[in-house]
Amino acid sequence: MARTPDAPVVLRVAGRPVGQYVTRPELPDRLSPRPFLHPVTTLAGTAVTELSPADHLHHLGVGVAVPDVEGHNFWGGRTYVRDRGPTELDNHGVQRHTGFPLCDPDGFVEELRWTAAGTELLRERRTVAATGLTDTAWALDLTFSLTNTTAAPVTIGSPATNGRPGAAYGGFFWRARKEDRTPDVFTAAAEGEAETHGRPADWLALTGRGSPRPDEAGSGGEWTLVFAGATDATRRDPWFVRTAEYPGVGSSLASAERLVIAPGDTTVRRVVTVVADGRLGRDEAAALARKAVAQ
Q: N or C: which end of the chain has fewer CB within 10 A?
């Protein structure tokens, strides 16, 4: 039976469902509607994403979100305005799914249009693939390519480039589930939010313990996410890390200055995430990150 255009795509590894991709969510404009992955689970069934949590309704599982594209908000929620702080503005954009050149159980290629105020600013080609690594770990490989389709340069910013130190979010972003226990975070050389946030690293690991919910069988259990930049440009981007306020990890497109995309040019980033059952140590995390990127 053919898949209907608006039906979610279910990603599978060795026949097991591990992620659901929603292409055309029905969301209010304030949340900057866009496609997202949720739920994403480990092979044992532990959920490792959150959708529209009470603390940040605009956090939508796993996807690509940018708070400032030529002043338009493709992140959702309030916009950080220099000398004013977070401000409610009617400036939200939409990432519109236009089609799947390729769509298989283990991945897809998607075309999107980034539009705001009736104008297309960017076109995106997004490639997502799910690959088995071990009996307890698999990898989610996400590449996004943003092309400027306008006649002038398009710039991408963040609250950090607009005057808010330490808030360089925007780009690939993974919102994990908030649990009773704050997750641990570490890289090959550092550990803790303060030491890993705002710094580049070949890989970064987030570990936690799922709290089973009455309506979600198998949702509990220890888990580890290992995020790895898979291109030189991606590895140069600092990691955006939150553990105390909420569990989330992103790769920052615009950390110290605005990213400029010239007319017709394309910016590409690729992040591969290991999704593992159990709590991995540094050596295990590093080995799986290398294996995931090499596949």
A: N
Q: Which residue has the tokens 């605009």?
A: 58
Helix, strand, coil tally for the chain in percent (to 5): 10, 50, 45
CA-nearest of 267, 70, 77, 242 to 155 is: 70
- The number of angstroms, rounded, from the C-alpha of 86 to the middle of its chain's C-alpha atoms is 22
- One-letter amino acid of 228: A
Cα atoms in the 13 Å half-sphere on the side-chain side of 84: 8
Please name which of 216, 192, 218, 213 lies closest in space to residue 204, comparing C-alpha atoms: 192
Judge whether 240 and 182 are in contact, CB under 8 Å.
no
DSSP 5-63: TTSPEEEEETTEEEEEEESS----GGG----EEEEEB-TT--B---BS-TT-TT-BSEE
pTM: 0.95
Find out whether 81 and 71 touch, Cβ atoms under 8 Å. no
Q: What is the pLDDT along the chain (295 residues), one digit of tens a residue?
A: 445 667 899 999 999 999 999 999 999 999 999 999 999 999 999 999 999 999 999 999 999 999 999 999 999 999 999 999 999 999 999 999 999 999 999 999 999 999 999 999 999 999 999 999 999 999 999 999 999 999 999 999 999 999 999 999 999 999 999 999 999 999 999 999 999 999 999 999 999 986 554 444 445 689 999 999 999 999 999 999 999 999 999 999 999 999 999 999 999 999 999 999 999 999 999 999 999 999 8
> Is the distance from CB of 256 to CB of 237 less than 8 angstroms?
no
